[in-house]
UniProtKB/TrEMBL annotation:
It comes from Urochloa decumbens. It catalyses: D-gluconate + ATP = 6-phospho-D-gluconate + ADP + H(+). Pathway: Carbohydrate acid metabolism; D-gluconate degradation. Keywords: ATP-binding, Kinase, Nucleotide-binding, Transferase. This is Gluconokinase. Its EC number is 2.7.1.12. Belongs to the gluconokinase GntK/GntV family. InterPro entries: P-loop_NTPase, Therm_gnt_kin.
Amino acid sequence: MKLKSATWVPQVWKWTKWRRSRSAAVGCCRRRLQLTTPLSLTREPVESESRRRSAMAGSDPLVARPGLAIVIMGVSGCGKSTVAALLAEALGCSFIEADDYHSQANKAKMSKGIPLSDADRTPWLESLRDAIRDRLDGGEDVAVSCSALQLKYREILRAADKSYQPGYYAACRVKFVCLRASAEVITDRMQRRSSEGKHFMPASLLQSQLDLLQIDAAEGITEVDATMRAGDIVRDTIAQFREELASTVSPCF
Ligand SMILES: Nc1ncnc2c1ncn2[C@@H]1O[C@H](COP(=O)(O)OP(=O)(O)OP(=O)(O)O)[C@@H](O)[C@H]1O
Ligand SMILES: O=C(O)[C@H](O)[C@@H](O)[C@H](O)[C@H](O)CO
């Protein structure tokens, strides 16, 4: 088709002008996004690395991914705190230690060898849920150490994801990994820890924890051998959730 120069020139000029103003606007938005997108709480390098990787993967690095909470769960002494702290380090994200959210009354009760009741656990779990929600709302990943022994307790934590609909476990941004080991291995760990004066939880409470631990197959929770090296558990956990994680992994992992 032959274009008449009288109409073509103004059309091209208009189009070029529109392109220029659009790219200026987009550039401005992108710069503003860079300044205002909530950064992963810890470090600028993590964000930059994340952008680099996203760019390499061909996705838009400015589209923030929602945060992910990975809860390392299981009975007392199975290694939750050890693994979750290492996971947070590897991801450059924050770490929530559930024991820090217990009331003094709860801690005193456990120290005396008395198992907590549901009434004792509920406000504790709700405060944890709120702490996790804060991170997720800010687009941050978070590693959590919490026993979360029963489905009803995990449901409280899953509610940290405001979009969670009960029973839709796979879509929930709160994930669980359960550490498992024999009672003998865990008793040994707990006794050693107590003898070093490092923890309030007596080994006498282990059986009550094992009695409560219950996972519904539909939840799809990965169960991990807690006698593996903590670093190996972290590596496998990151591999499992690589797609969903907003953070990137520190080069040493
Ligand atoms: N993978 C592991 N291999 C060997 N020892 C471990 C491993 N993970 C943890 N431990 C040791 O086992 C003990 C219990 O670990 P940790 O405190 O992390 O357990 P926990 O599940 O968080 O316990 P609690 O729920 O009572 O706080 C600690 O002394 C820790 O050093
Ligand atoms: O749910 C529970 O019975 C307790 O809260 C415990 O699991 C402790 O939090 C912890 O494991 C001891 O450190």
